[in-house]
Design goal:
Length: 207
Protein backbone atom coordinates (compact mmCIF):
# COMPACT_ATOMS: atom_id res chain seq x y z
CA UNK A 1 0.00 0.00 0.00
CA UNK A 2 1.40 3.45 -0.92
CA UNK A 3 2.65 5.50 2.03
CA UNK A 4 0.54 8.42 0.87
CA UNK A 5 -2.63 6.34 1.18
CA UNK A 6 -1.71 5.23 4.70
CA UNK A 7 -1.09 8.84 5.74
CA UNK A 8 -4.46 10.01 4.39
CA UNK A 9 -6.33 7.17 6.12
CA UNK A 10 -4.63 7.98 9.44
CA UNK A 11 -5.23 11.69 8.94
CA UNK A 12 -8.98 11.26 8.54
CA UNK A 13 -9.80 10.77 12.27
CA UNK A 14 -7.37 13.59 13.15
CA UNK A 15 -9.10 16.00 10.78
CA UNK A 16 -12.57 14.88 11.90
CA UNK A 17 -11.57 15.51 15.52
CA UNK A 18 -10.21 18.98 14.73
CA UNK A 19 -13.46 19.86 12.95
CA UNK A 20 -15.50 18.55 15.88
CA UNK A 21 -13.37 20.58 18.34
CA UNK A 22 -13.66 23.80 16.34
CA UNK A 23 -17.43 23.41 15.99
CA UNK A 24 -18.05 22.29 19.59
CA UNK A 25 -15.64 24.50 21.53
CA UNK A 26 -14.95 27.51 19.33
CA UNK A 27 -18.44 27.61 17.86
CA UNK A 28 -17.82 27.77 14.12
CA UNK A 29 -20.80 26.26 12.36
CA UNK A 30 -19.40 25.24 8.95
CA UNK A 31 -21.39 22.79 6.80
CA UNK A 32 -21.55 19.97 9.34
CA UNK A 33 -18.51 17.73 9.79
CA UNK A 34 -18.61 15.69 6.58
CA UNK A 35 -18.58 18.65 4.18
CA UNK A 36 -15.42 20.40 5.46
CA UNK A 37 -13.79 16.95 5.79
CA UNK A 38 -14.19 16.10 2.10
CA UNK A 39 -13.38 19.70 1.19
CA UNK A 40 -9.99 19.29 2.91
CA UNK A 41 -9.15 16.21 0.86
CA UNK A 42 -10.37 17.94 -2.31
CA UNK A 43 -8.00 20.83 -1.57
CA UNK A 44 -5.21 18.32 -0.98
CA UNK A 45 -5.85 16.62 -4.33
CA UNK A 46 -6.16 19.84 -6.35
CA UNK A 47 -3.78 22.03 -4.40
CA UNK A 48 -4.88 24.81 -2.07
CA UNK A 49 -4.54 27.65 -4.59
CA UNK A 50 -6.57 25.97 -7.31
CA UNK A 51 -8.95 24.51 -4.77
CA UNK A 52 -9.81 27.99 -3.48
CA UNK A 53 -10.22 29.29 -7.03
CA UNK A 54 -12.62 26.46 -7.90
CA UNK A 55 -14.50 26.99 -4.62
CA UNK A 56 -14.83 30.75 -5.30
CA UNK A 57 -16.05 30.19 -8.87
CA UNK A 58 -18.57 27.58 -7.73
CA UNK A 59 -19.89 29.83 -4.96
CA UNK A 60 -20.10 33.06 -6.95
CA UNK A 61 -21.62 31.49 -10.07
CA UNK A 62 -23.98 29.41 -7.92
CA UNK A 63 -25.23 32.50 -6.05
CA UNK A 64 -25.77 34.42 -9.30
CA UNK A 65 -27.59 31.55 -11.02
CA UNK A 66 -29.77 30.87 -7.99
CA UNK A 67 -31.09 34.44 -8.04
CA UNK A 68 -31.71 34.23 -11.79
CA UNK A 69 -33.41 30.81 -11.70
CA UNK A 70 -35.49 31.80 -8.68
CA UNK A 71 -37.56 34.04 -10.94
CA UNK A 72 -38.71 30.99 -12.93
CA UNK A 73 -40.62 29.73 -9.86
CA UNK A 74 -39.49 26.12 -10.29
CA UNK A 75 -39.53 23.28 -7.78
CA UNK A 76 -36.42 22.90 -5.60
CA UNK A 77 -34.74 19.89 -7.25
CA UNK A 78 -35.07 21.04 -10.89
CA UNK A 79 -33.85 24.47 -9.80
CA UNK A 80 -30.77 22.95 -8.14
CA UNK A 81 -30.10 20.84 -11.23
CA UNK A 82 -30.12 23.96 -13.44
CA UNK A 83 -27.78 25.80 -11.07
CA UNK A 84 -25.38 22.85 -10.95
CA UNK A 85 -25.43 22.69 -14.76
CA UNK A 86 -24.45 26.34 -14.96
CA UNK A 87 -21.70 25.86 -12.37
CA UNK A 88 -20.34 22.84 -14.25
CA UNK A 89 -20.16 24.89 -17.46
CA UNK A 90 -18.36 27.69 -15.59
CA UNK A 91 -15.76 25.20 -14.33
CA UNK A 92 -15.45 23.92 -17.90
CA UNK A 93 -14.72 27.49 -19.01
CA UNK A 94 -12.21 27.85 -16.14
CA UNK A 95 -10.33 24.80 -17.38
CA UNK A 96 -10.12 26.33 -20.87
CA UNK A 97 -8.75 29.56 -19.38
CA UNK A 98 -6.19 27.65 -17.31
CA UNK A 99 -5.11 25.73 -20.41
CA UNK A 100 -4.86 28.94 -22.46
CA UNK A 101 -2.50 30.62 -19.98
CA UNK A 102 -0.36 27.51 -19.70
CA UNK A 103 -1.19 26.56 -16.10
CA UNK A 104 -1.63 22.82 -16.54
CA UNK A 105 -1.53 21.74 -12.87
CA UNK A 106 -5.31 21.94 -12.55
CA UNK A 107 -5.78 20.04 -15.82
CA UNK A 108 -3.71 17.14 -14.51
CA UNK A 109 -5.94 16.80 -11.44
CA UNK A 110 -8.59 14.10 -11.22
CA UNK A 111 -12.08 15.41 -11.91
CA UNK A 112 -13.52 13.89 -8.72
CA UNK A 113 -12.15 16.54 -6.27
CA UNK A 114 -13.61 19.24 -8.54
CA UNK A 115 -16.98 17.46 -8.56
CA UNK A 116 -16.82 17.26 -4.75
CA UNK A 117 -16.36 21.02 -4.50
CA UNK A 118 -19.22 21.60 -6.97
CA UNK A 119 -21.47 19.35 -4.88
CA UNK A 120 -20.90 21.63 -1.86
CA UNK A 121 -23.05 24.22 -3.58
CA UNK A 122 -26.21 22.35 -2.57
CA UNK A 123 -25.20 22.76 1.09
CA UNK A 124 -24.87 26.51 0.56
CA UNK A 125 -28.25 26.77 -1.14
CA UNK A 126 -29.84 24.68 1.63
CA UNK A 127 -28.53 27.03 4.34
CA UNK A 128 -29.47 30.08 2.28
CA UNK A 129 -33.02 28.80 1.87
CA UNK A 130 -33.43 28.10 5.60
CA UNK A 131 -31.41 30.87 7.25
CA UNK A 132 -30.84 33.54 4.63
CA UNK A 133 -28.03 34.73 2.37
CA UNK A 134 -25.88 36.38 5.06
CA UNK A 135 -25.82 33.28 7.26
CA UNK A 136 -25.03 31.07 4.26
CA UNK A 137 -22.03 33.25 3.36
CA UNK A 138 -20.77 33.20 6.97
CA UNK A 139 -21.06 29.40 7.15
CA UNK A 140 -19.31 29.08 3.77
CA UNK A 141 -16.40 31.23 4.94
CA UNK A 142 -16.14 29.25 8.18
CA UNK A 143 -16.08 26.04 6.14
CA UNK A 144 -13.28 27.39 3.93
CA UNK A 145 -11.16 28.65 6.85
CA UNK A 146 -11.61 25.36 8.69
CA UNK A 147 -10.68 23.42 5.55
CA UNK A 148 -7.54 25.53 5.10
CA UNK A 149 -6.44 24.87 8.69
CA UNK A 150 -6.96 21.15 8.25
CA UNK A 151 -5.23 21.21 4.86
CA UNK A 152 -2.04 22.46 6.49
CA UNK A 153 -2.34 19.70 9.08
CA UNK A 154 -2.50 17.09 6.30
CA UNK A 155 0.64 18.36 4.59
CA UNK A 156 2.58 18.86 7.86
CA UNK A 157 5.60 16.51 7.53
CA UNK A 158 6.11 16.22 11.30
CA UNK A 159 2.54 15.00 11.86
CA UNK A 160 2.80 12.63 8.90
CA UNK A 161 5.95 11.05 10.32
CA UNK A 162 4.42 10.73 13.79
CA UNK A 163 1.37 8.91 12.41
CA UNK A 164 3.47 6.62 10.23
CA UNK A 165 5.75 5.66 13.13
CA UNK A 166 3.03 5.53 15.79
CA UNK A 167 -0.32 4.83 14.06
CA UNK A 168 -1.88 3.76 17.38
CA UNK A 169 -1.91 7.44 18.40
CA UNK A 170 -5.02 7.80 16.23
CA UNK A 171 -6.91 5.93 18.98
CA UNK A 172 -6.38 8.93 21.25
CA UNK A 173 -8.88 10.81 19.10
CA UNK A 174 -11.57 8.45 20.43
CA UNK A 175 -10.72 9.38 24.02
CA UNK A 176 -10.61 13.06 23.11
CA UNK A 177 -13.99 12.90 21.34
CA UNK A 178 -15.58 11.13 24.32
CA UNK A 179 -14.43 14.01 26.54
CA UNK A 180 -15.55 16.49 23.90
CA UNK A 181 -18.96 14.83 23.72
CA UNK A 182 -19.51 15.50 27.43
CA UNK A 183 -18.78 19.21 27.10
CA UNK A 184 -21.69 21.26 28.44
CA UNK A 185 -20.10 24.71 28.65
CA UNK A 186 -20.59 27.66 26.35
CA UNK A 187 -18.74 27.83 23.07
CA UNK A 188 -16.03 30.46 22.71
CA UNK A 189 -18.10 32.37 20.14
CA UNK A 190 -21.03 32.39 22.58
CA UNK A 191 -18.89 34.09 25.23
CA UNK A 192 -18.35 36.96 22.79
CA UNK A 193 -21.95 36.90 21.63
CA UNK A 194 -23.45 36.97 25.12
CA UNK A 195 -20.65 38.92 26.84
CA UNK A 196 -23.00 41.68 28.00
CA UNK A 197 -25.47 39.16 29.44
CA UNK A 198 -22.67 37.29 31.25
CA UNK A 199 -21.36 40.56 32.76
CA UNK A 200 -24.85 41.47 33.87
CA UNK A 201 -25.31 38.07 35.58
CA UNK A 202 -21.91 38.34 37.30
CA UNK A 203 -22.74 41.80 38.60
CA UNK A 204 -26.10 40.57 39.86
CA UNK A 205 -24.37 37.75 41.79
CA UNK A 206 -21.98 40.22 43.44
CA UNK A 207 -24.87 42.36 44.62
Amino acid sequence: MPQETIVLILMLPIIATVIAFVRQIIGWKAFGIYTPLICVFAFWAIGLKYGLIVFAVVLLVGILLRFLVKRLRLLYLPRIAIVLTGVALSIFALLFIVAAIGKNNLLKTSIFPIIIIISLLEEFIGVQTKKGFKQAVIVSLETVFLSIICYYLIIWPWLQNILLNYPWLVLLTVVFNIALGKWIGLRLSEYFRFSQVIKHVELSKKK
